[in-house]
Amino acid sequence: MLVLLALPLVLGACQAPSFGGFRGATTQARDEFHLYVGTVFAGIAVGGITMALIIWAALRYRRRSNAIPRQTQYHIPLEITYTAIPVVIVLILFGFTFTTENAVDHISGHPNVHVQVTAFQWGWRFNYTDYHVYVQGVQRQNPDPVGSNGGLDSCLTTASSPDACLGPGLVLPEGETTEINLVSNDVVHAFYVPAFNFQRDAYPGVNRQLFDFTPKKVGVFHAQCNELCGLYHSQMFFHVVVLPPAKFQAWLKSGQPVPDTQPAPSTGSSANNLLQPAYPPGSGAANIHYPTPAESTGAPSSSSTSTSSKRKGS
Asked: What is d(CA 300, CA 191) in angstroms, rounded to the nearest whole number?
């Protein structure tokens, strides 16, 4: 009987110590993972002690005769003990949760990179506001096939799975802090990166929702919208590429200047937007915008007016 009682606990811990969670590819994600694992271990300890006491009481005080056993009540020390212990456990878990949430939600005063992420039906736009570079794509399109070698190999070559390369690519530097400003052009979307242990909703009309990522691991990570947002929600993928800082800078400067003819979709995007290519067929790198010479020197240009004005307002 004891074996049967212990079987669910043993089988449920087969993935210890991760318990099926992502270990985290960012500093913030690892903090969340440690909190999750600590909470699970605390739950196992409390559950194990509780189960042991139940089994002990059932065996120790099982019925042996028709005589009424001695009744115990108003045992003040015992009642204080079994009331105080759960309160202390909850306070400890609250303290760790409070500390972790503050660390995850902390916004650096001096991030290395700023990216405005715009969600729309049904795609993503990643605007590197400090560099006049953006990446945009819809559905399963992969306008940014850079792999973890910074363009030396394609995403499909370096990713762990082809599914990790679906949708446009958000490229981040390893070991450096990137500040994300998440906005929505139309309806509620959700920015979800499982390997980062992170999800944040994007709300239309909310133009300043900031959070930081500090990636600790080079690689390609699957991501998606995780909030039902319309007809093609199930295909609203993107992926995150983490590169060493030098390769990240090389990626930012690697493309030829492309006229900025594709501003972010306006509010009210519909299926008609989806059925049209995000960029003209055969345009190659036109889905990744790099700075024109005028943008590089800070001078205004007619081809970059829409992006520059949006950047100044972000």
From this structure: 32
43 Cβ neighbours under 8 A, 6+ residues apart: none
- The predicted-structure confidence for 200-213, as pLDDT tens digits, reads as follows 999 999 888 899 99
- Reference 137, options 59, 224, 36, 72; nearest CA is 224
The token pair at 39 is 């909470």
> How far are the Cα atoms of 15, 145, 208 from residue 240, in angstroms, in the given order?
26, 11, 21
Token digits of residue 269: 């995007």
Say if residues 143 and 135 touch (Cβ distance below 8 Å): yes
Angstrom CA distances, 126 to 68, 96, 205, stand at 74, 33, 18
Confidence of residue 18 (pLDDT cuts 50, 70, 90): low
Q: Which residues make beta-bridge pairs with 189?
A: 202
Determine what percent of the chain falls in helix, strand and coil, rounding each to the nearest 5: 40, 20, 40
Q: Which helix (H) or strand (E) holds 171?
A: strand 169-173
Asked whether the predicted pLDDT for residue 242 surpasses 50, the reply is yes
Cα–Cα distance measured from residue 140 to residue 143, given in angstroms and rounded to the nearest whole number: 9
Distance from C-alpha of 230 to C-alpha of 249, rounded to nearest angstrom: 36
The Cα–Cα gap between 171 and 254 comes to: 13
Sorted by sequence, the CB contacts under 8 Å of residue 278 that are 6+ apart come out as 123, 136, 137, 138, 141, 143, 262, 287
pTM over 0.90: no
C-beta separation of 286 from 280 below 8 A: yes
Rounded Cα distance between 190 and 203, Å, is 9
Q: How far is CA 248 from CA 147, 173, 245, 267, 278, in A?
A: 11, 6, 5, 31, 24
Calpha distance 19→65 (Å, rounded): 45
Q: Which residue has the higher pLDDT, 97 or 67?
A: 97
Would you say 106 and 212 are in contact if contact means Cβ atoms under 8 Å apart? yes
